[in-house]
Amino acid sequence: MGHMGTIYLVRHGQASFGEDDYDRLSPLGHRQAQRLGEYLRQRFERDGVQIDTVLMGSLTRHRQTWEGIALGARWSHSPAVWQGLNEYDSQALIEAISPEPLPKPDSPELYRQHFRLLKQALRAWMDGRIQPIGMGSYAAFVQDVASALEHVRQTSANHALIVSSGGPISSAVGQLLEASPEAIIELNLHIRNTALTELTFTPKRHRLLSFNNVPHLDSDEHQSWITYA
Known about the structure:
Layout lengths: L4 E7 L15 H21 L5 E4 L3 H14 L6 E2 L8 H8 L10 H19 L11 H18 L3 E6 L1 H12 L3 H9 L6 E6 L4 E8 L16
Parallel strand pairs: 1-4, 2-3, 2-4
Antiparallel strand pairs: 1-5, 5-6
């Protein structure tokens, strides 16, 4: 079969949805990340796994998630920062289809409205019907994510950890499964915070091994830590 490695794609911990600055972890987000690190340390020690490559986006919530994982796992890797692992700008997307400024999504109804508009905007962007301010095309977004995975395939010996966001992770999985835009949007909006998605890779290609798992939050005491935003 030749050489095979594994990529562990991690979505960031719970961020500050509805706050003025979304791009930082909530107190729970920090705990989720540290808990994931503790879980990975135990699992990797048991399985004899050594992470040799760490990549992350350049957002604050990516860095804070990595710091929590590293603390929990007692790792000292220096992650490489890849802009291509950054999330799309959901605000710019929504504004491209809804020029009226929206109130803060601080009620269940406004929260639903936010995601309803985001779904419509994502679809329009993926179809090339809108060009949100400050954003490239969806094709370029997909290519950026693919280049990070390609980099791992070329350089990682065995096991890579990538900290990113729901958009890049769902796009990577969607490309592997040749999924429709609708299916990719559904995957995107159901990725849990600090969820693990595993890809296996050979020098030639990637395969999906698992998607959106939170084994570190499986116990009764951590059930309430499972979040989506």
